[in-house]
Amino acid sequence: MTEILLTDTPEDAPVGLADDPEIRITAHTYRRVFGVPPAALRRAPGGLALLGGVPHTPDAAR
Question: What is the spatial distance between Cα 9 and Cα 24, in angstroms, rounded to a whole number?
Answer without folding.
Answer: 9
